[in-house]
Structures are given as C-alpha cells and as structure tokens.
Amino acid sequence: MYNRLDNGFIQRKFVARVKDFIEFAKANCTTYNNEGMIKCPCHRNKCRLLPYFDVQTVEYHICRYGFIPGYYCWY
C-alpha cells in the first residue's frame, strides 16, 4: 500500500490500488456523503481540516501526497 514511488515516478500498480480503495470507500464507508464526496486520507495537513472532497480530488491527493502514515483501516 505504501510503495508509491519507483525512481521518482508513481507506480501504475499503486494508482490501480488507489482506484480500488476509492471504490471500496464509496461502497462501504460511512464517511461517504450524499453528494458523492469522501474524506481524504492523504498526508496533506489541509485535508484533515476540510470535511469532504470529491472522489477525483481524493484520488489525486493520495497519488501525489501518499496516505497518512499508519493509515490501515479502510472501513
């Protein structure tokens, strides 16, 4: 889950697993709101202050910044 970079580039496998994570979050997570937005588990401090983001933003943030260290609970 945390093997994000390979020679400075984001691994394709990581991006595919992020997409799987997003689908899992949308289907199972209680933090998915009625407007199609979810909480962002990325490493960026700003995301912890805002309640919800659209799915595309969360996907970008996870790929760009990675997950919060120690983030293992997906539901």
UniProtKB/TrEMBL annotation:
InterPro entries: Transpos_assoc (IPR029480). Residues 10-75 form the Transposase-associated domain. It comes from the Eukaryota. This is Transposase-associated domain-containing protein.
